[in-house]
What we know:
single chain, alpha+beta, Porin, eight-stranded antiparallel β-barrel, 57% strand
Amino acid sequence: MKKLIVLVMLFAMMLVGLPFLNAQEAETDKKEPCDAKTFSLSVGAGYRNFSEDLFKEVYGNAPMTINVDLGVRVWKSLEIFVHTDYLKVEGETTLTKEDTTLTIFPIELGARYLANVSITKSCRMKLFPYIGAGAGYYSIKEENPIGTVDENRVGFFAEGGLRFYPMKSFFIDAKLKQVVLKSENGTNLGGFAYMGSIGVSF
């Protein structure tokens, strides 16, 4: 139910924002170049799996995440970005069948290269395939009756995706991301993440 509510909220935000963005496009079509803007801001949701089989058994295959991404174009098609997402999932320990909760909250810094693909001659309907990579500072907390693990670790990631502009300043983003992360005792907390978001460029 929580996943459905989040997805409905994102869709509602998109519908509410479309009329306003469309009005802005009509006024700026002749003033701005047909290219990526300097700044981009997006919010979205996705699913994150775990490479470690034990975590799949305890927490399931793909818990949901909420994400925010802020990018700055620094040179032609090169964008520097800050990304964060929030994962909190409940599960059950394998032996004692007790409740357990895992929370992962990262702050990531990376760079991505966006390739400009024209779909039409206008500034609308633009498609930007991209690849990116970077590093992050990950806050990890696991709580259950056995004990609490609370630590901060450095990890790395690589990503690839598509950013589609149905209008000049409004975009829809979808990406696949690989996270490389290990806990202090060497447990593999990495895995794949599948994310979708909506955003604006300005």
